[in-house]
């Protein structure tokens, strides 16, 4: 059976700088995994390479539901079922969240099902007051992340990369975003949460935690890894 996300021997360089040095990582459907690591470990590069940012020279494979997306343009990766929630969501003047959702529903394989997902997600995440507003304009950090989770629910991807979604949030907003991720768990979705800190993992239940250092996954295990890093830092793993 295919996994939501399956990365094999993924390497990436930027010019003469080798950043990813052979990443192997599997996120099964229905699971939430966390990827932790210090600054400069390659977490952001991994996200960029998966999403198709073409500044990097990359080799290896990245399967989304069994389909290798390496070499595909960004929009084809999205159609294959790959979704990214951004560390710093962009404000888009002149385009309302409702406009975006209408477009997402129109291109869905099953528009009727997509409209039902929109209604259910809007109710779950209390999105009514945001629908007529320009995307992310004037929203707090927590509200922007709520909007991102809503878009995730509407698009129904196979694999979601949540890139430091706890960045810039106060403790209440961190808890709220973590609870949203748990609420969106699904047998048809695999989630990779990328974070520096263990605090967001206190409010969700990651099935597995991976630690990246110097472009490699150096340790994988249960939530106890995050707890240990909170106490000891990354020095011992380095």
Tertiary shape: globular
Secondary-structure arrangement, i.e. CATH architecture of the domain at 5-88 and 158-232: 3-Layer(aba) Sandwich
**What is the oligomeric state here?**
single chain
Give me the CATH fold name of the domain at 5-88 and 158-232.
Rossmann fold
**Strand order of the biggest β-sheet:** 6-9-10-3-11-12
Order of helices and strands: EEEHEEHEEHHEHEHEEEH
CATH first level of the domain at 5-88 and 158-232: Alpha Beta
Low-confidence stretches: none
Secondary structure class reads alpha/beta
Q: State the helix count.
A: 7
Commentary on this structure:
This protein has 238 residues and is of the alpha/beta class. It has a domain at 5-88 and 158-232: P-loop containing nucleotide triphosphate hydrolases (Rossmann fold, 3-Layer(aba) Sandwich), CATH 3.40.50.300. Helix content is 33%, strand content 29%. The protein has 7 helices and 12 strands. It has helices spanning 43-51, 74-80, 97-106, 111-125, 141-155, 171-183, 224-232; strands at residues 5-14, 17-27, 32-36, 57-64, 67-68, 82-85, 92-96, 134-135, 159-163, 190-195, 208-213, 216-221. The strands form 3 sheets. The protein has a 6-stranded mixed beta sheet, sandwiched between helices. A 4-stranded antiparallel beta sheet has the order 2-1-4-5, covered by helices on one side. A hairpin with a 2-residue loop joins strand 4 (57-64) and strand 5 (67-68). The longest helix is centred in the middle third of the chain and has 15 residues, at 111-125. The termini are far apart. The relative contact order is 0.19. The model has no long low-confidence stretch (mean pLDDT 92).
């Amino acid at each position: 059976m295919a996994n939501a996300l399956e990365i094999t021997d993924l390497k990436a360089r930027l010019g003469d700088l080798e950043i990813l040095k052979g990443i192997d990582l599997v996120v099964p459907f229905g699971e939430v995994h966390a990827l932790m690591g210090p600054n400069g470990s390659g977490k952001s590069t991994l996200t960029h390479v998966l999403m198709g940012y073409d500044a990097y020279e990359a080799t290896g494979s990245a399967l989304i539901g069994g389909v290798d997306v390496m070499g595909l343009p960004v929009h084809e990766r999205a159609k294959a079922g790959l979704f990214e929630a951004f560390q710093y969501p962009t404000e888009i003047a002149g385009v309302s969240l409702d406009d975006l959702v209408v477009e997402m529903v129109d291109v869905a394989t099953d528009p009727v099902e997509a409209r039902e997902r929109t209604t259910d997600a809007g109710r779950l995440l209390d999105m009514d007051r945001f629908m007529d507003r320009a995307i992310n304009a004037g929203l707090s950090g927590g509200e922007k992340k709520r909007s991102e989770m809503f878009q995730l629910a509407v698009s129904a991807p196979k694999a979601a990369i949540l890139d430091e979604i706890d960045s810039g949030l106060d403790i209440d907003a961190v808890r709220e975003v973590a609870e949203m991720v748990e609420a969106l768990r699904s047998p048809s979705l695999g989630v990779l949460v990328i974070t520096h800190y263990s605090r967001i993992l206190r409010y969700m239940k990651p099935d597995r935690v991976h630690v990246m250092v110097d472009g490699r996954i150096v340790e994988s295990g249960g939530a106890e890894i995050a707890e240990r890093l909170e106490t000891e830092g990354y020095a011992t793993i380095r």
